């Protein structure tokens, strides 16, 4: 990688770059808009994945990621070891736009796109391939009614000009995942970007005029809840809190129970394994952010507790 491109990475991303080899491929797809079902049905009309796979899969967020259990996505490969670049994503969006917008408005009231649920739109390879950037440009031509951008990466800042243009013409929220105030859990890898990096990115996006939501999902053990949610109140318009129970696409969190995440959480705080912990954190958040707290799928859909 050229020195200039490496210099653009965050410190956390440079640390992750030293990992094992990545199977990188380019492909074209017939469809890029997936009609939402399951957990996402209450959130949006469609999900959109610029990539298949996620190079953050070997970081902390990848340990409990529900997508690692999808044979359709992984095709037997270890999560975090592959990335398929969907080179025609923008063209596929344009081709499907009229049909999918009409279906969404007829059946779901609005054409709402979630970018993304099974990858991160700002994986480091986005700098090289620009798939997400091309999709945002296509959306400026053919507007969704609503766009939710979900990411773990401060690299979302590189898309700020396009996001600001979209926000002037459609409902847009940027969701930044910050699962805890801890950067490490025992025995697990570090996050793709530090807590500080992500909260600073949230603050910068909000100062620019974008609607920013910090998603504490899946909720991990929090060392200093009062301080953590007070900081989120400063940098975000809202917070969404979700637990792996009810939040990983299985009714009882069984997908996450198959991973190393619950054992690591228990070593820090055993109470964090239950929904009661989520409710306690929700109450702390509500003290600092009255009217700005969402829970679970309703929260991801933009609905807040009174």
Can you give a write-up of this model?
The protein has 306 residues and is of the alpha/beta class. The protein has one domain: Alpha-Beta Horseshoe (pyruvate-formate lyase- activating enzyme). The chain is 39% helix and 15% strand. It has 15 helices and 11 strands. It has helices spanning 3-7, 11-16, 60-63, 71-74, 89-107, 126-129, 131-141, 160-167, 195-207, 225-235, 244-247, 254-257, 261-268, 275-288, 296-300; strands at 23-27, 33-35, 46-48, 51-52, 82-86, 112-115, 146-151, 171-177, 212-216, 238-241, 293-295. It has an 8-stranded mixed sheet. Strands 1-5-4 form a 3-stranded mixed sheet, with no helix packed on it. Helix 5 crosses helix 7 (131-141) and helix 7 (131-141) packs parallel to helix 8.
The CATH topology name reads pyruvate-formate lyase- activating enzyme
How many strand units?
A: 11
Unreliable segments of 5+ consecutive residues: 1-9, 11-19
Task: Please state roughly what percent of the residues sit in beta strands, choosing from under 5%, 5-15%, 15-25%, 25-35%, 35-45% or over 45%.
Answer: 15-25%
The CATH architecture comes to: Alpha-Beta Horseshoe
Envelope shape:
globular
Q: What's the main sheet like?
A: 8 strands, mixed
Strand order of the largest sheet: 2-3-6-7-8-9-10-11
* Backbone structural class: alpha/beta
- Report the radius of gyration as a whole number of Å: 18 Å
Span between termini: 49 Å
How many structural domains can be distinguished in the coordinates?
A: 1
The percent range for helix content is 25-40%
The helix/strand order is HHEEEEHHEHEHHEHEHEHEHHHHEH
